[in-house]
Amino acid sequence: MDLKLRQCFLAVDDHDKALYFYRDVLGLEVRNDVSFEGMRWLTVGSPLQPDVEIVLEPPGASPDASPADRELMARLLAKGMLRGVIFTTADCDALHERVREAGAEVLQEPMNQPYGVRDCAFRDPAGNLLRFMERSDDTAGA
After folding, report:
1. Does domain 7-140 have CATH number 3.10.180.10?
2. Which of 13, 39, 53, 56 counts the most CB atoms within 10 A of its CB?
3. How far apart are CA 109 and CA 107, in angstroms?
4. 126-141 pLDDT, tens per residue?
């Protein structure tokens, strides 16, 4: 099969804060900024991966979501209970310092993992988990 990842979705409760974080702190490109029926979607991606995008959407944005479903999604987002994404980087420590200085909530300082990566973790302004990993032969077995 010829399959490739094209888009993944993260719920955000404040698109302006998300825009600042993903564009200005992480350095992702804004590919779309769309308003529709009182909602807003941002699409961002790495300049190094022009065919992969992260869609930042309102909690419970599905047209089939009931008001109760949307409220539940908003509460789960506020608790940081929704899934996130994992990025790779050439320098985990430098990225960690830049994101920490921007005021993001630190979940894990950079550390060598026994499975061969050095990684750190943050929450974005909406509470989504973001991990940043650096592959290195030096981290194996650390």
Report:
1. yes
2. 56
3. 7
4. 999 999 999 976 444 4
Distances in whole angstroms, Cα of residue 108 to Cα of each of 28, 47, 84, 120, 133 = 22, 26, 14, 5, 12
Dihedral sign computed on CA atoms, order 37, 19, 64, 3: positive
Half-sphere exposure (Cβ direction) of 88: Cα atoms closer than 13 Å = 8
Domain spans of the chain, in order of start: 7-140
- Sheet with 115-123, side-by-side order of all strands: 85-88, 129-140, 115-123, 105-112
Candidates 107, 113, 114; CA nearest to 131 is 107
Return the beta strands (E) in the chain as ranges: 7-11, 29-36, 39-45, 53-57, 85-88, 105-112, 115-123, 129-140
The pTM of the whole model exceeds 0.85: yes
Q: What does each C-alpha distance from 102 to 17, 71, 91, 126, 142 come to in angstroms?
A: 12, 29, 17, 15, 29
Tell me how far CA of residue 42 lies from CA of 79, 84, 138, 140, in angstroms.
22, 16, 37, 37
pLDDT (average), residues 52-79: 88
